[in-house]
## 1
Amino acid sequence: MSTIVAIPYQIRRITIDQVLFTEVKPPIDCKKIVLSRGAEDDGFTIRSNPSDPNQEKEVAAGWEKEIQGQGCFYPANAIVCYVRAKTIVGVLVVECFR
């Protein structure tokens, strides 16, 4: 009989474009989320509210954005933030840690 162990880490890739803000939802309950694009891409914009530019931060190409906080918990499939590509349509890597 084998023991089932909860996977402490999940990776998802989502396609983002430069027009619409895309929801980021962790596939598992987690305490930390890391967002990144490759160095060949042009980075991305992150918002906590897709319609409010005052809640926006730009992340440069090749850099990561880590989302976590003291005592924070992000339930699976809950919207954590919204992202948009700066100019190049591409893939955003979403890494989730329990």
## 2
Amino acid sequence: MSNTVLKLASLAMLASCIGVLFWAFALRRGMVPILLVNMLTASLVLAYQAPRLFITIRTGDVPVIALIVFELSTLTLAALALGGTRVFLFASMAAFAVNGLAGLAAAIFAFSFRMTRLF
């Protein structure tokens, strides 16, 4: 992954969060768009981590395992929140906020430092 890819990915994440917040609140579309973005983001992260899952677990890479658990819970909470339960909706909104802040932090990092090799 190059620095350009990190910049584009972090900007895409940030733009999707801002766009869906505008869509949900300014256009009064409800929480469904936010839940769908939560599910999409979690699915993309889990799909990216899936090929290395057994290696990650075997080596005990705790930060990556925590990320996988967080995104699995985000996906589950968003799916359960589609049923209309308020507790799951609030928990899913908190997960959306964490994902949005992570996207913001990644964008700040990507534009503040120039990386020649990330992976």
## 3
Amino acid sequence: MAKIAVEKSTGIVLDAWGDGYQLSFKSDGLHVSLHDQLKVVVLWITESECSIWDSITGLPEDFKSYKYKHDGTNWSLNSDWEEDTSQPNSPEEPN
């Protein structure tokens, strides 16, 4: 099972964490903790714009942030999502 952050206006899943994580909104963003130790503060996920849903099943095997929507029961592909196929630039050879 997973916990997911869902954008309220679109249903787009912004990110997902295992059920062992604790998620809480603070004034500076979403605090993600594991075993009562803060792991990360996600500044761009705010309580006014997102909901956190617990005990979600069926996380797609190819899950990526923004790729899917969730309506509280069902997963669906985000029709606006595009795979990033760009390759990082190779470092230039020194002169």
## 4
Amino acid sequence: MDDPSLVSGCLQRAIALGAKLRSAPDTAGYFDWTLGTPLVTHNDEWGVICRVDFIMAGADVAPRVNRLVMFQTGNRDDVMIAIGQEVAPLDAAPLETPISTH
């Protein structure tokens, strides 16, 4: 999906989630992340899905991938945070300047 408003909304949700998680005690910087470019897709079962690869401050797991996946189920905002996955990076054009959440 090539909708700038959906991509922008996806980034804002990821930034807000990082800030919320970062405020929890004993997070050890895991949620001080640098976000890549979101990939926003849609399917009939899950609706709009936002995926964003990220790098955690002080804990780069390259070549493995950290990925944030966000979608809505009914009135709920659902989130999956996958760290150190053996998957290919998202096929999204890289941001000229990655977005930092800290």
